[in-house]
Amino acid sequence: MDSQNISPSPTASSGSVFAHLVRAPEDPILGVTVAFNKDPSPVKLNLGVGAYRTEEGKPLVLNVVRKAQHQIVNDPSRNKEYLPIVGLADFNKLSAKLIFGADSPAIQENRITTVQCLSGTGSLRVGGEFLAKHYHQRIIYLPKPTWGNHTKVFTLAGLSVKTYRYYAPATRGLDFQGLLEDLGSAPSGSIVLLHACAHNPTGVDPTPEQWEQIRQLIRSKALLPFFDSAYQGFASGNLDADAHSVRSFVADGGELLAAQSYAKNMGLYGERVGALSIVSKSADVASLVESQLKLVIRPMYSNPPLHGASIVATILKDRDLYNEWTIELKGMADRIISMRQQLFDALRSRGTPGDWSHIIKSIGMFTFTGLNPEQVSFMTKEYHIYLTSDGRISMAGLSSKTVPHLADAIHAAVTRAS
Ligand code: PGU
Question: Where is the Aminotransferase class I/classII large domain (predicted)?
Answer without folding.
Answer: 44-410
